[in-house]
Amino acid sequence: MIVFILRRLTQSAVVIAAMAVLVFTGIFAIGNPIDVLISPEADEVERAAAIARLGLDQPMHVQFARFVESAVGGDLGTSFVHGVPALGLVLQRFPATLELALAAMLLAVLLGIPLGLWAGLKPDSVAGRVIMTGSILGFSLPTFWVGMMLIMAFAVQLGWLPAGGRGQTASLFGVQWSFLTRDGLAHLILPAINLATFKLSLVIRLARAGTREVALQDYVKFARAKGLSPARVVGVHILKNIMIPVVTVLGLELGSVIAFSVVTESVFAWPGMGKLLIESILQLDRPVVVAYLLLTVLLFVVINLVVDLIYSMLDPRIRLGGGRA
Amino acid sequence: MTQPLLRVENLQTHFATRAGTVKAVDGVSFDLRRGEILGLVGESGSGKSVTGQSILGLVDPPGRIAGGRVLFDGEDLVTAGEKRLRAIRGRRIAMIFQDPMMTLNPVLSVETQMVEAVLAHDKVGRAEARRRSRDALGRVGIASPEERLAAYPHQFSGGMRQRVAIAIALLHSPDLILADEPTTALDVTIQAQILFEVQTLCRDTGTALLWVTHDLAVVSALADRVAVMYAGRIVETGPIADVIQAPRHPYTRGLLDSVPSRNRRGVPLRSIPGMTPSVLDLPKGCAFQPRCGRADAACAVMPELPENGHAWRCWHPHDADARGAAA
Ligand SMILES: Nc1ncnc2c1ncn2[C@@H]1O[C@H](COP(=O)(O)OP(=O)(O)O)[C@@H](O)[C@H]1O
Ligand code: SF4
Ligand SMILES: [Mg+2]
């Protein structure tokens, strides 16, 4: 297990290093770093100062060392628009996005796995068919359209839930969270449903396909032949096996939920990283875009690592290696 | 006459498929006394596994028991509720499957899978359940059972996995074990070992055994009686010695002739021509007609299986002494 963790940590480090080289090449070597990193509105004196400060007159390897140094130190340039460090700006918006993404994932898992199990155990029942039809809809309807429909129905027509913003927040670990207050939670519901729809459909399909396959395995029949209750057969023998693919895909999807919350955040005016990204692109605020990209890649790497660890905990064949005693 | 432990009466198990109703088991009847070993033999697809699973109500949809009775200790399991069946499964009737690679859940430890089997029927503490599991592993010849409890199935060889499955089957000292080709997937030496051990364990505990196999040689070494299945029906049944020495049904004869050890040296192996028929389009009358050298017009009517000690379902059976002479 320790060997496994070390191996995965090394792999992650390699990915991050490769990413650093790529971003460096992208900004410093291919493009003109002066255009990317320095505001076009800066005057000649500011330009010269910035070039000296960033070391753009230095040879390439020195520049790379400096880039790594400042990136590790968290300095990815200053936002043209807001005049504050870009990374700080993105990080400040991160909790909102994380909260939304986790809420969406939680919805997708808590609803998707039971629904998928049901549809897999009783594929020909009315409920099973309804669940599958629903998941096809969830897959094919565009997120922004579903988001607007949700606002129309629940905010405008029924007036049950607010249409946008984070609502009232409360502090936990020095960070503001919406889910801690009633008002914030009410604001979270619609965007979370919107972001969850696609993942929910995905989880339902994964769980259903897994269940159908696993339910036919001899070990399930053997478990029944031992006289186990259906709850134990489904809740332990089947569930634990279908969780392996579900966790794997979900882990990868958590990254994409964070990255693609852009649409939902825009529709619901949710002040997260995604909304910031769209604003920054529109305003040509390049350091912020760069910081967003780097942070997202880093997130993907970390999430992958965590997923692999959970995966290995679920599957003893990976945790313990394939050797036979 | 004492009541048999298990009496299967005219069992019908059908699968509703697109192509039509598959009568995988079509009127199977047999008795099994306490402590007795019955071999259920037939080519793949003849309905042996479905018969075994029907007894415990474990046939998955689209299969269902369409008729007949399964009297276990006088109680009909076909009409018994799921709850009642659950109380019998694993406690009074246990089951072992063919492929030991597939019968243990790959993501649960051996301990989990054994302890849950104990706890399914006995209200004992975890420690006691664990102790019983460990002892059961020791009984089937697994070295250092204490450590092996913590292992996962993939850390065992095929033979060892089958021993674990057998240990699980023995946990509650059942009255009956349904063993569905439990040694088929193993190599010959391990097969012989396990065969011997199961036989000893069953004799010691007075457990009756329904041993499903396609291999008559295995059955002849193990069973008291044998029932030969073809296309969902029993075609010959009787005490093992009678059936082996004087097979009367042409199909049984064919099976025996295809057992290598029974052939004279240098004589080419004779196996049964043709293939197992699709249960969907069987000929009218005897199902074996297309492959039978003795078939004639009379065979278009289904022959009955009389209720005798040694009985066969055939219009033109072989003579009682014909086999020795022909070979
Ligand atoms: N799930 C199923 N769907 C349709 N037919 C089935 C199914 N399972 C078994 N059968 C039918 O039952 C017949 C007997 O199967 P089985 O009892 O497994 O044979 P055996 O164990 O003797 O090899 C098969 O030939 C097949 O036609
Ligand atoms: S009844 Fe006829 S076809 Fe069937 S086994 Fe006997 S001789 Fe052959
Ligand atoms: Mg079989």
Automatic annotation (TrEMBL), chain A:
Keywords: Cell membrane, Membrane, Transmembrane, Transmembrane helix, Transport. The chain crosses the membrane at residues 12-31, 100-118, 130-156, 185-207, 242-270, 290-311. It is found in: Cell membrane. Residues 94-311 form the ABC transmembrane type-1 domain. InterPro entries: BPD_transp_1_N, MetI-like, MetI-like_sf. Pfam families: BPD_transp_1, BPD_transp_1_N. It is a multi-pass membrane protein. Its main location: membrane. Belongs to the binding-protein-dependent transport system permease family. This is Peptide/nickel transport system permease protein.
UniProtKB/TrEMBL annotation, chain B:
It is a peripheral membrane protein. Pfam families: ABC_tran, oligo_HPY. Keywords: ATP-binding, Cell membrane, Membrane, Nucleotide-binding, Transport. Residues 6-256 form the ABC transporter domain. The keyword Iron-sulfur does not apply. Coiled coil: none annotated. PROSITE patterns: ABC_TRANSPORTER_1, ABC_TRANSPORTER_2. One of its GO terms (molecular function) is ATP binding. Belongs to the ABC transporter superfamily. This is Peptide/nickel transport system ATP-binding protein. It comes from Azospirillum rugosum.
